[in-house]
Every structure is written in structure tokens, then in C-alpha cells.
């Protein structure tokens, strides 16, 4: 006999998760309830984040670099990593960004492109949260077009000397190591830069109206001198940084399902408990239509994420699949957040409820790791065979 659908997992997607994936879901969800949910509104309001404490907690759960193999990393499935991102972003996009930048940008870059010395030096400590990393690609005048970056690395004897500025760098002010991409005479190359190196400065970006429970920095490299061994040995051009961005986007397309779910659940609970004109708001036709629309969006995004995760685990994932997921799921999550905000009425703008915080965060998520426009062009090229980027 069929069961009545669960309002919190309408299509029963989690029933199809493997045992490890369910265990990770439960562990992250429990950690979030015990250590994150009661504090995230204050972190958002103050624009502060206890980075060292969070790194230790996430490291103890095995979340940092969890989808990487060896060097103290858990080596989980891609879907398991995605589920962890979903549960973190159900709390706040900034917390998922914290884990995503550490594992899918900084650690992945070192794991994929670094030397064995880089891996041995940094990855074990980054996996436990003892060391934090950041990823320096975006610049003030080079966002969607990273090939136009101005940061440059030049040879000086046996050393490299880096000069330039990076912008919108998550965890930059607390990082122990930065992966920095720079122009060289041999094309764009990546460098492992300890942040204590003279000439390296990280300046906090203030006055943000979104992603406030996240630490964002401007990196200034003023004649930063590094040994020859600091450079990634093999990779040249944009292939290196774009491969890292693809890993981070994968976490996003799962993560925003959590943000959308949190907004839907807040709207459901609110409209069931709030009465007007003698009955709960949830009893009115217009409210039920809104709830029906957003539960469809949440579950559709969950299906997209799960299918893309299965493709990744099977070795069949193409970067256009990730563009599809990032574009579709962020759009769905924003739609859910905006509708849920209206359903809460005036309370929808209060930090006592999570909806407006998620809605504001998702405006940033729509832009970073590739704007919606860039992903639309990627999909357009995939289906037509014609590039329209320039």
C-alpha cells in the first residue's frame, strides 16, 4: 500500500541514498542543530564567523576535502559530499561556502595540480581544520573573464615574484595558505602561497548585504617572493582553475536545495500555525497554491542534484551538466525563497526566521562560481555547438 508523501521529502529522494550517504546526512544535520542553527542569525547580523572553531568542528566530522582520496581525506562519494553541502546550506550559504572553498577549491587544487610536497605539507592539516585555505582567482576587473587577470608572476633568479590583487576571496582573512593564479610568460599558472609570506595582505570586505555569515577578503600581493617549488608543476592556462570551479559548483547545486528546503519548511510551519480570518493561513487556496509551487521546486531541484551526483560518481559528469545544475537549482531556490518570504508577511524580513537571510544569500550564490548568464551560454553552446561568449 502506498504511503502518504512526507511533506519534508515529498518524492522520497533520501530513501534512495546509500547507507554512507544517509549517515553523513544525519551527522551533519545533527551537528547543525547542536552547534550552528542557534548562532547563525547572530553571525549574519554581525558579519562575523568563528572560523577556527568551525574549522575544528567540520574537520572532526570529516567534511573538509571529504570527496578527496588520501592525505587524511575521507574519500566519500560525490553524492555524500553533495548531501553534506545540502545540510550545511540549509543553515546558511556562508557555512557551505566555508567548507566548499576549503575542500573543493583550495584542497582540490593542491590535490589535483600540486606537487607531492604540496600535498604532504598542506592537505593533512587542511583536512582536520588545523590549516585553512583560500582560492585567489577573481580580480576587481576579471570575474567572468578570468583569462584577463592582471596578477602576474615573474622569474627572479630561482624564485617567483607575484604582484596583483584578488577580490571576493572567501576565507581570505583567516587562511594559512592561498592558492593564487597568475599570468606568467608560460601562461596562467597556480601557486601555493603561505599567507605569512612578506608582501601578502588580506583586507576584509565590509558592507556586504548578502553572505554576511562568511568572511570575504581582498588579497593584495605586493612583490610576494616564493621559491620555484611554490608553482604547480604541470598545469598551464585556465584548465587548472576552471577544474576547481567545477568542483565548487557541484557543491553549490546540491547546497541550494538545502536553502530552498529551509525556506519551504519555514513557510509551511508558519502558515499552519498563523491564523487570520478565523483559520490557519495554510487553509486558504492562494496559500496552498504557493505551497504547492514551492514544494515542486524544492523536489525538482533535489532530483536534478541527485542525478548529477550519480553521473559524477559514475565518471560520466561533463562540466555542462554542472552548469545545468547550478543554473537550474539556484534559480529554483531563489524562486522558493522569494515566495516563502511573502508568505511570512512582515515576519518574512526578520532574522527570527531564516527566509530573508537565505534569499539575500542566494543573490550572491546566483553570481559567484559563474553567473547565471555564463552558465546559460555554456548550455547554449552545448546544445547548438556554437560559442557565443564573445
Automatic annotation (TrEMBL):
GO molecular function: fatty-acyl-CoA binding; flavin adenine dinucleotide binding; glutaryl-CoA dehydrogenase activity
Protein name: glutaryl-CoA dehydrogenase (ETF)
Swiss-Prot/TrEMBL keywords: FAD, Flavoprotein, Oxidoreductase, Transit peptide
Coiled coil start-end: none
Protein family according to the UniProt entry: Belongs to the acyl-CoA dehydrogenase family.
Database matches in InterPro entries: Acyl-CoA_DH_CS, Acyl-CoA_Oxase/DH_mid-dom, Acyl-CoA_Oxase/DH_mid-dom_sf, AcylCo_DH-like_C, AcylCo_DH/oxidase_C, AcylCoA_DH/ox_N, AcylCoA_DH/ox_N_sf, AcylCoA_DH/oxidase_NM_dom_sf
Organism ancestry: Bacteria, Bacillati, Actinomycetota, Actinomycetes, Pseudonocardiales
BP terms from Gene Ontology: fatty acid beta-oxidation using acyl-CoA dehydrogenase; fatty-acyl-CoA biosynthetic process
Nucleotide-binding is among the record's keywords: no
PROSITE patterns: ACYL_COA_DH_1
Limits of the Acyl-CoA dehydrogenase/oxidase C-terminal domain: 236-382
Names of required cofactors: FAD
Family matches, as PANTHER family: GLUTARYL-COA DEHYDROGENASE, MITOCHONDRIAL (PTHR42807)
Pathway(s) annotated for this protein in UniProt: Amino-acid metabolism; lysine degradation; Amino-acid metabolism; tryptophan metabolism
Amino acid at each position: 500500500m502506498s504511503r502518504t508523501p512526507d511533506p519534508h521529502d515529498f518524492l522520497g529522494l533520501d530513501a534512495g541514498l546509500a547507507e554512507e550517504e544517509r549517515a553523513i546526512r544525519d551527522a551533519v544535520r545533527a551537528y547543525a542543530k547542536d552547534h550552528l542553527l542557534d548562532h547563525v542569525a547572530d553571525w549574519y547580523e554581525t558579519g562575523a564567523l568563528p572560523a577556527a572553531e568551525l574549522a575544528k568542528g567540520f574537520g572532526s566530522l570529516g567534511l573538509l576535502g571529504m570527496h578527496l582520496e588520501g592525505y587524511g581525506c575521507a574519500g566519500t562519494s560525490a553524492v555524500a559530499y553533495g548531501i553534506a553541502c545540502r545540510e550545511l546550506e540549509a543553515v546558511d550559504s556562508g557555512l557551505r561556502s566555508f567548507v566548499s572553498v576549503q575542500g573543493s577549491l583550495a584542497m582540490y587544487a593542491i590535490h589535483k595540480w600540486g606537487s607531492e610536497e604540496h600535498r604532504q605539507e598542506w592537505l593533512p592539516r587542511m583536512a582536520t581544520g588545523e590549516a585553512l585555505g583560500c582560492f585567489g582567482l577573481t580580480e576587481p576587473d576579471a570575474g567572468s573573464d578570468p583569462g584577463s587577470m592582471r596578477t602576474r608572476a615573474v622569474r627572479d633568479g630561482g624564485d617567483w615574484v607575484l604582484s596583483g590583487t584578488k577580490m571576493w576571496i572567501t576565507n581570505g582573512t583567516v587562511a594559512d595558505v592561498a592558492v593564487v593564479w597568475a599570468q606568467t610568460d608560460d601562461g596562467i599558472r597556480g601557486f601555493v602561497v603561505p599567507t605569512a609570506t612578506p608582501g601578502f595582505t588580506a583586507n576584509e570586505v565590509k558592507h556586504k548585504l548578502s553572505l554576511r555569515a562568511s568572511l570575504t577578503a581582498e588579497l593584495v600581493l605586493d612583490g610576494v617572493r616564493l621559491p620555484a617549488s611554490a608553482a604547480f608543476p604541470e598545469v598551464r592556462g585556465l584548465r587548472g582553475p576552471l577544474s576547481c570551479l567545477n568542483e565548487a559548483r557541484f557543491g553549490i547545486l546540491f547546497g541550494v536545495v538545502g536553502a530552498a528546503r529551509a525556506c519551504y519548511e519555514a513557510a509551511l510551519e508558519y502558515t499552519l500555525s498563523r491564523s487570520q480570518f478565523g483559520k490557519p493561513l495554510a487553509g486558504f487556496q492562494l496559500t496552498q497554491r504557493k505551497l504547492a509551487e514551492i514544494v515542486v521546486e524544492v523536489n525538482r531541484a533535489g532530483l536534478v542534484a541527485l542525478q548529477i551526483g550519480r553521473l559524477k560518481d559514475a565518471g560520466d559528469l561533463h562540466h555542462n551538466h554542472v552548469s545545468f545544475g547550478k543554473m537550474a537549482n539556484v534559480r529554483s531556490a531563489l524562486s522558493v525563497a522569494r515566495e516563502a518570504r511573502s508568505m511570512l508577511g512582515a515576519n518574512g524580513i526578520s532574522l527570527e526566521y531564516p527566509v530573508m537571510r537565505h534569499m539575500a544569500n542566494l543573490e550572491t550564490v546566483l553570481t559567484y562560481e559563474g553567473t547565471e548568464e555564463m552558465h546559460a551560454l555554456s548550455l547554449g553552446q552545448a546544445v547548438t555547438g556554437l560559442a557565443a561568449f564573445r
